[in-house]
Specification:
rod-shaped, 11 helices
């Protein structure tokens, strides 16, 4: 059944075939069959599937690849593959994904990036990313975020910033931000 004309039979057969026989099916035209191969092949054989045309196959490969080999998929054309990679890649290697074109990928990167590198994302064009940075970055590095153009980022930054930074903060245009600053200054 490994050579059957119907993909369903080939996919079922691939669940039971020897790994040696699976290697002969790497160029199967159906992505479901190749996904079964990606689950069953030995990890050392997965390199041949990194460039598979189907993103689900590449995600399956990314799920099984050793963490050291994940960087080969950092520039994948599909954002779901890159998003999955951002979840698994070693934290110290995430800096390569700071400028990813997809917001959700950058958001995952901002949540996992080591603290010392978070400043590189403080000026991201998406407020959601800057908000994650404001929540995580070292308190001493919050100064630029206190002047952010998005009130939510300024609010989070003003809740965490050292009091000295708040004293130098002019009256904010947003009422909630002004209230947090007043409350925190009054507590001193």
């Amino acid at each position: 059944y490994a050579g059957d004309e119907f993909w369903e039979r080939r996919a079922i057969a691939a669940r039971y075939l020897s790994q040696q026989r699976l290697l002969q099916m790497l160029d199967d035209p159906d992505e479901v069959v190749r996904r079964v191969l990606a689950y069953r092949l030995p990890v050392k054989e997965l390199d041949a599937m990194i460039g598979d045309p189907d993103r689900e196959v590449r995600i399956t490969v990314a799920d099984r690849l050793p963490v050291e080999k994940l960087e080969s998929l950092v520039d994948d054309q599909d954002y779901l593959v890159r998003h999955y990679i951002a979840k698994r890649l070693k934290r110290g290697r995430l800096f390569r994904m700071i400028n990813d074109p997809e917001r959700e990928v950058r958001k995952t990167v901002a949540r996992r990036l080591p603290m010392e590198s978070l400043g590189l994302m403080a000026f991201d064009h998406e407020p959601e990313i800057r908000l994650v940075v404001a929540e995580r970055i070292d308190e001493e590095a919050l100064q630029p975020l206190l002047a952010d153009r998005d009130w939510r980022v300024r609010l989070v930054a003003s809740e965490r910033a050292p009091i000295d930074m708040l004293r130098a903060m002019p009256e904010d245009e947003d009422e909630d931000v002004r209230e947090i600053v007043r409350q925190r200054l009054a507590e001193c």
